[in-house]
Amino acid sequence: MSEETKGIILVKVALVSEDGTDEKWTISPESFAADTHPLPVTGNVTVEGRLYKADNTIYFNGEVEAVMGLECSRCLKSFNLPVKDTVAAVFMPKEEFSAAGEEQELSGEDMDITVYDGEQIELYGPVRDQLALAAPMRPLCSEDCKGLCPVCGADLNVEKCGCQAQVLDPRLAALKKLIK
Asked: Coil, strand, or helix at residue 43?
């Protein structure tokens, strides 16, 4: 039913049934590195789920599992973060989505639909988008990461530094005089 071309998941529309089929794919990390906005995937990405068809619309519900190589936002150490998340995608033929080439106003529900033209759909886009959303905005190597000393830059997870615990912003020095 499916073929993998250069790590991208392609599914032939004619082979998707109304009863649905369970599928599993493996995408190489090079596919994510070659993107316009690369994702730091460190190993193969596994995608598995169910494809089914209703009329000419194709639905995919599944899971994506990967390991991402991230940098801690506190201590700047590299670490691997296992990611597992659900993926859902709806593919509608171009002819049905746009009525005779007329312009349409899109609703919120329409934003989740991927339009396809031809005999194949590509699942890579929704999988990649879900992985990007699953990555934390401020990754932490551990919840109790102490980070770096703002004065000397020492890794506070490894050593204690002799710097002052509280550094006063020089712009606020005049206000400190008023407190005394």
From this structure: coil
